[in-house]
Every structure is written in structure tokens, then in C-alpha cells.
Amino acid sequence: MLTLSGEHIKLRALEPSDIDFLLAIENNEDLWHLSYTNQPFSRHILMKYIENANQDIYQAKQLRLVISDEKNTPLGLIDLYDFDFQNKRAGVGIIVDLNHRRKGYAIEALNLVCKYAFTRLELHQLFASINHGNESSKHLFEQAGFSQTSVKKEWNFIGGKFYDEYFYQKINYVH
């Protein structure tokens, strides 16, 4: 089972005991625009998701890891998605629970997943899509070495308005 350890956090696979945390994150309507969700998930559906979360990234084309502290308490989630082995790239998404923000967990998690993606998965690049107005995410990804490479104009329709989406990339030039 995959576990990546940092100085203050670890990234680990989803466990059945994470169900309440996952329900709270996935069913928080304030976050739905980040994942293009438009309806709540049932406990049953998310339990099935956890049961199948051990599927290999090469099969599932995604990997969701829990950001946890030394007591194994879930602090957030970090995902590799749209995994494309042929083109050696994947998207990165991250969410840290509101009660655990501004403590350095997000940058540590992002750096750990970048190292894993570039060394173990041998990816050439990671990318992230960040909504207009999400300055904390822009800052986080820039701090981790990502660069804004394009803007998707009026890409997302949120709350009756269209908003731009910023595309960030981190390219691994060491092979």
C-alpha cells in the first residue's frame, strides 16, 4: 500500500475509516465547482469508491491520496488525475480541510506528490487547472514550481457567471 512520508504529514491510501471525512469533502456544495460535481454522493457510493481505490494508477488513470498527520487524522486529499502514461503527464488537484489550512500541509503534500510523480511514475509533467479568484491555489502551485502557461477564457460557469480558468504546468527536465 502506497504511503509517502514528509516532515509533518504523510500521503496514504484511502481507508474505510476515512468515510466521514470523504463525505464531508465530497458533499460540501461550496467545493463542487472545483470538481464539476453537481449532486451529493451517498455513503454507499463513497464506500464502494474507497473499496476500489486500491486500483493501480495505470488502470484507473487516477490516484487519490489522503493527507494525514502523525496520528493518521485526515487533513485533506490530493489527486493525480487524467494520468496519461504514453505522454507522461497527469493533473494534480488538492484540497485541505478548512480547519487545517495555512499550516504548510498543502505545500508539503504537493511537493511529495510531485517527487513521486517525477521519480516513481517517471512523468515528464504535471498540470493543474485553477479557477479565477483562487489566489491561494495560484500561490501554492507557484510556490511548488508550477508556472501559469495559459488562460481558458470564460471556461467555467459558476453562480450565473462565466469565469476564466488558469492552466499551470510543472515540467520535469531531469530524466
UniProtKB/TrEMBL annotation:
Record field: transmembrane: none
Domain of life: Bacteria
GO molecular function, one term: acyltransferase activity, transferring groups other than amino-acyl groups
UniProt-listed InterPro entries: Acyl_CoA_acyltransferase, GNAT_dom
Matches recorded under SUPFAM superfamilies: Acyl-CoA N-acyltransferases (Nat)
N-acetyltransferase domain span: 9-169
Protein name from the UniProt record: GNAT family N-acetyltransferase
